[in-house]
């Protein structure tokens, strides 16, 4: 304990704080002990609430039951893996606060029918104290679903409704853990175990970022486990993660998880019949105590959820003008599969088809591991353009049924001169991400049709080399009105996913790889609506509503000597903005 307090004092001396910070990570869990000296700079009793006012704001270590899960989440939301903080002497700048919403009772359990109301009601209580703060809602509490896998539940729909914010015009970013699993058949490849472990409720939420776990932790020196080996390989899925591969409703459900982050590893016995957790293969964080043992370990998808929540809060503080949809999109846009995940993809492709392999990976690890540095700072040879826009998806003439209303055409300021300097054989990468929130259908009647749950859908398309603008416009109008159409295989040339795979949920991201010469002609993007219940349930007049979306576009040029950033900056300064044509 003495050593731990010395560590805490060392860290406290390096912290710089903006006491006027208006960004917060709102941790919805068992409560956070704001008296822990490693947390007290970021939170206090005025930033804590409980669903039931008779509940303590956090559990006292000296009383039972004691559950400090919320405090352990808070440490990761502030510091990340604490070990890396202890191993360096750099200053620590945390530009956000920590709020605690206790949604789990100290004893017994909540009524499952109230899960949604408890989650959003506790969040609203915290919002009343600081109504102008921008928040990341971090939820690492899940339950076994009582619906067909992937189908919306009352809990996930309540989160989608709260995120969409139609009633109070506040849109909210939720980050939810996928839920944890315990491998039972150790003879089975842990990848196969995760395939069978379905993501839990409410992580099927369309508007939330769902986080699974991967691991980079494979080194252990504990002599007690001499001869034991890391259960998962480096850069692979963590054994405790969950997936949506086995969902029964996956024909209509989003790809989940959206991202994976570090969730720790396990050790496998020499006889391969036992696994165990160890401190070294877990993440170091804060405990729920204010004295003595200030540190604890955390792992699995809870830890991963906390890390992504930290990333989101850093971005929110760095870019106050960015919408929640944009923060969500930016985290996905800058995420990548690891080399091990690419190996898994090649194995799956050899056993099936490219399409089935891609969908399998998307439902195991989503778009990969987020990269905060990439998200915070566009390198000169990997520039990201961002547009935050509003569109009116539907219109109605007289008493006729609503129809699709408008599309947006973006003229892209490609650095043609810089791209022409590249050797003809050089491949460049164009990456596009479209992020928006949907209003869930208030009905709970099975959601059998393709567009029965979401209020609306949006899609993007890019003009092909040698395609005229008139032909491009006509093809989108034709295809958008065909609700069964998901794009021909021919349109997918150069795209990793293509139009048939990038249609799930309300977050669509894809990458095109090809020549710089072709890219210079791919200078127009369309964002256009597809169906949703707003179009079919006319009594509520939702079809007149505008909706927001964020479009992120980047080009990645492998030649570091080519400065695309300066040329695009000059073009944007001349044109003032990315041109949008309605």
**Form type:** globular
- Quickly give the CATH architecture of the largest domain: 3-Layer(aba) Sandwich
Mean pLDDT: 91
Number of helices, counting only DSSP H or I runs of 4 residues or more: 16
Q: If you compute it from the alpha carbons, what radius of gyration comes out, rounded to the nearest whole angstrom?
A: 24 Å
**DSSP strand tally:** 25
CATH fold-level topology of the largest domain: Rossmann fold
How many domains, in number, for the residues? Answer: 2
* Model regions low in confidence, pLDDT < 50 over at least 5 residues: 574-580
Helical coverage, percent range:
25-40%
Largest sheet: 8 strands, mixed
CATH homologous superfamily identity of the largest domain: Peptidase S8/S53 domain
- Please state roughly what percent of the residues sit in beta strands, choosing from under 5%, 5-15%, 15-25%, 25-35%, 35-45% or over 45%: 15-25%
Structural class, by secondary structure, is alpha/beta
Distance between the termini: 64 Å
- CATH C-level of the largest domain: Alpha Beta
Structure description:
With 582 residues, the chain is α/β, with parallel strands linked by helices. It folds into two domains: 2-365, Rossmann fold; 378-581, no CATH class. Helices cover 27% and strands 21% of the residues. Helix 2 crosses helix 7 (300-318). The longest helix is centred in the middle third of the chain and has 19 residues, at 300-318. The protein is globular and about 70 Å long. Pfam families: Peptidase_S8. One of its GO terms (biological process) is proteolysis. Residues 22-368 form the Peptidase S8/S53 domain. InterPro entries: Peptidase_S8/S53_dom, Peptidase_S8/S53_dom_sf, Peptidase_S8_Asp-AS, Peptidase_S8_subtilisin-like, Y4bN_pept_dom.
